[in-house]
Specification:
The chain has 432 residues and is mainly α. It is 65% helix and 4% strand. It has one domain. The strands form three sheets. A two-stranded antiparallel ribbon has the order 1-4. Strand 5 and strand 6 form a beta hairpin. The protein starts with a strand and ends in an 8-residue tail after the last helix. InterPro entries: EamA_dom (IPR000620), EmrE-like (IPR037185), Mg_trans_NIPA (IPR008521).
Length: 432
């Protein structure tokens, strides 16, 4: 495919829209990850034997004296006379909850998990409050996920399309790595997930590799490319081999994800790179824009509106399919792992996949000039791979189970400690 050199103004416009796309992508990924955290908190409100969350700003502390286990019996073990006094016992406990001393602002939240030994009571304000909190948080989770999905499916692709109208995928794809910068900067604030030193170093390698690829990659555009050239490019043997190889790679990754015998580390790697790998089919979007520009003068007009050829819609269908599949995989990855890891693996695998695609579909290496470009362009890709490997060989992740917490290893540890403390106080609170 013949091409023309990008002008300085086109290069600046393309980079500008690509940076805007990275900001939208970072905010969207943070919103999606946050939605899973909020949904998990909502699930904790509605599951278990019994859980009462004491909020330091809205609730009061629970001050109950230590109970003698030998004197505490369930209604089924009491005599008829004792059973008749159970409602009075429940009323007394509710009164003690309402009149207990408020928590100070510097006291932590307290959770209790206990056995239900009193008969059901018609008026259960604590249960109603818990349900109201759960519905409110669930609505917040769906709202955040909806905004994140809107950004990833509409706003981010829109800015990407505009950017690709000015520059080639080989130079624009690396700038998606700026998404990592926004995620690393705002994860502690938004998600309370502080990236580890290893993650920061790995992201630095990925960002450095992307800058090198952008600076010394292919700076050619598609001016002068005809529809016939676009069609013929899909019959290249090396491009067909790339498609077969990428599809085989995706099959292997899906097998690793679905196989119960796969190690947690291998599953985490597969989840991390699957979304970015399939999103590397950026040729569909770029070629659809090329067809649209090439057919603008000869396209059929309906009510004065030019209708592009069928090839445009076929290519757009491929572009949308690749983007949606990659997004769905990324959403599931962010449900299981922290935002820094998920985004870094997605961006790194995306840039590698898109770079290989550009090499076989747009003859990237044929458009390189000088020894410096021939050396540094592959070096940039190697730096990307180093960053991905550093993330992949991190500490062994905890096995993920459907319905488990999405808070990461530290959250799992804190949740385990909380449950242990709750088990020690199972008999301290017995209310409906």
């Amino acid at each position: 495919m013949s091409s023309g050199t990008i002008t300085q103004s086109d290069w600046v416009k393309g980079i500008g829209f690509s940076i805007l796309s990275s900001i939208i992508g970072g905010a969207s990924k943070l919103a999606i990850r946050k939605s899973w955290r909020v949904e998990e908190a909502c699930r904790n409100l509605t599951t278990g034997d019994f859980m009462l969350l004491v909020d330091t700003s809205h609730h009061t502390s629970v001050l109950l004296p230590e109970a003698d286990e030998s004197n505490i019996q369930c209604p089924a073990e009491k005599s008829d006379l004792e059973t008749q006094s159970a409602p009075m016992y429940v009323a007394e406990e509710q009164q003690r909850l309402q009149t207990s001393v408020p928590l100070r602002s510097n006291e932590p939240r307290v959770s209790f998990r206990g056995l239900l030994c009193a008969p059901p009571v018609a008026n259960a304000p604590l249960a109603q409050t818990r349900e109201q909190m759960a519905h409110k948080r669930l609505y917040q989770a769906y709202s955040l996920r909806g905004m994140g999905t809107l950004g990833m499916t509409t706003l981010n692709p829109l800015t990407t399309v505009i950017a690709m109208n000015y520059a080639s995928p080989s130079i624009l794809a690396p700038f998606s790595g700026l998404t990592l910068v926004w995620i690393i900067l705002f994860s502690p604030l938004v998600l309370e997930e502080t990236p580890s030193v290893r993650q920061v170093i790995a992201c630095a390698f990925i960002l450095l590799g992307e800058v090198v690829v952008a600076a010394f990659g292919d700076h050619k555009n598609d001016d002068g490319v005809s529809i016939h050239d676009v069609v013929q490019s899909y019959y290249k043997t090396k491009f067909l081999m790339f498609c077969f190889g990428l599809l085989s790679w995706m099959v292997v990754l899906m097998f690793v994800i679905r196989n119960e015998r796969s190690s947690p580390r291998l599953k985490r790697f597969a989840w991390g790179v699957a979304g970015g790998s399939v999103t590397g089919f950026q040729n569909f979007l770029k070629d659809a824009l090329t067809v649209l520009k090439a057919s603008s003068a000869t396209s059929t007009k309906v009510v004065g509106i030019p209708i592009p050829p069928m090839l445009f819609f076929v290519l757009m269908a491929g572009a949308i399919s690749a983007a949606v599949v990659g997004l769905l995989i990324l959403i599931q990855c962010m449900k299981r792992y922290d935002a820094t890891y998920s985004s870094a693996m997605f961006v790194g695998s995306f840039v590698v996949s898109a770079s290989i695609m550009s090499a076989v579909h747009y003859d990237t290496f044929a458009n390189l000039h000088g020894l410096l470009q021939y050396v540094l362009y592959p070096v940039g890709l190697i730096l990307l791979l180093i960053g991905i490997v550093l993330l992949a060989v991190a500490a062994e992740p905890a096995p993920y189970e459907e319905g488990a917490s999405v808070g990461g290893d530290e959250f799992h540890d804190s949740q385990h400690n909380t449950q242990s403390a709750d088990n020690r106080s199972r008999d301290e609170l017995r209310i409906d």
